[in-house]
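Question: I have long wanted to understand how a fold can be written as tokens. Here is the record:
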Amino acid sequence: MSLIAIILTAFVALLHVGFMVLEMFFWTRPLGRKVFRLDPKLAQDSAKLAMNQGLYNGFLAAGLVWGLLIGDRAICLFFLGCVVIAGLFGAATVKRSILYVQALPAILAAVAVHYF
């Protein structure tokens, strides 16, 4: 894989580690509530769901890191594809900005992994 493919894929993995931390540990705290625009009651009521969602983001990050560590394009492409699908679904069902924050970086990384 090229250096740009590695950097973009690592960036997507880092984003998902960040999402995981926000969702699992900061959902009900001021930072998490601000990032996700949640009132305290909604944050508290949905905290367990957010922790579950955060765990999945951690799995996506782990899969990307695994692919990078062993230099396997197919593994990286699989997990980047999962991120793209999750990002498209999130943009369609939750908030359009998810398209730019989650799906677009994964698409760029997948193109770099596939072609470079």
Q: What stands out?
A: The helical segments are 3-25, 30-36, 40-45, 47-70, 73-93, 97-115. The mean pLDDT is 97. The chain has six helices and no strands.
